[in-house]
Task: structure prediction
Amino acid sequence: MFAAAIALSRGVSRSTAVTQPPPTGSASPLAPSTDTSMPPAYLAWMPGGFPSAFEREVGSLPGVQAAVVVAGDTLWMSESLDSRANVATHPVPPYRVPIDAFAVDQDLYGAFVPSAYRSVLETTLAKGQAVLGATSAQIRGSGVGGRLVFGSESVTVGAVVPDPVVGWSEMLVSRATGSRLGIVDDRYVLAKMSGRPTDSAFLHTIQPSLTPGVPIRVAKPGEVRYVRVASGSAPPVVLKEVFGEFAAYPDASNPELLHIDPAWVSSHLVTRSVPLLGNETCNAAFFPALIGAMEQLQQQGLGNLVKSNAGCYNPELLAAKPTAPPAFHAYGAAIDINAPENPFGASPTQDPRLVAVMKHWGFNWGGNFLVPDGMHFEYLEPPP
Result:
């Protein structure tokens, strides 16, 4: 599992290496492999998403040549089929598989994908079909002609493209199809600007159209690896590739919690003794980095920087609603260290030496989040 993630961290994505459809595909899912670099674009996102009218407003702002707002929500898949109508995924009810799904206006989104993929993407979305990222298609075991079922609604897979083309989502659909499936929250905006503006100039351009007082993150072209909402974190499709995909369902009495399939829990989670932390229950694939980081702190005489920990595995949603993505803790792929001194939303107080060691071992630090979470260290890339 880590081998695949190593390729991602080195910029050699498995999705860009795929030239043939999965065995279950019935037609070529990929556009030609030429001109695969993503066009440069400014990225902006904010907690809770953008106002509903923002797409119309941002496209008409001075200096904006093209813009698109991408909607995104977690959909709960009850079944997936391959092109021959064979069942590829079928969790036992009430369990369902969380799918990271995006929706766009295909006429606007085309300006932000490589020309080699523009036609197949626009045509597929206009037909009401879904476009899968290549990693998602591999996880699903289903290519072109397959079908994803979400309760009483479903969508046919019309194309498979490299992961960056679909914003590293698992599934991209049109706005109309997204509305039918339940993708309603506007998550991030892509924009092309005239001239060579700075990121601050782009922010100044769009700021009057945004909710006052809500923090926003802007990235200039080429600045972030994942051009999407939460651009500094590994997307759900990467988590699934490295740590495995689970089925679950939200707790009716506490929407922050998930009931995760016990079979996945027993096959992916283990309890081990970790230096400085004691016994921890995490995803088995998470331990090499976690143990390596704690051992390095010990070897450098920095063990006293770890005063407490608030655990690794926790079956929770990122926010208290079913459309939010499962948190890294639900995969057993994050650890909270020194929580009392670093509460969520407060200015972090972590020692920079601790943060540096964790980053060296492939962790993403929550202290750099748009809303700081200084205790939180999550998987970002494989350990060295």
About this structure: Residues 287-299 form the longest helix (13 residues).
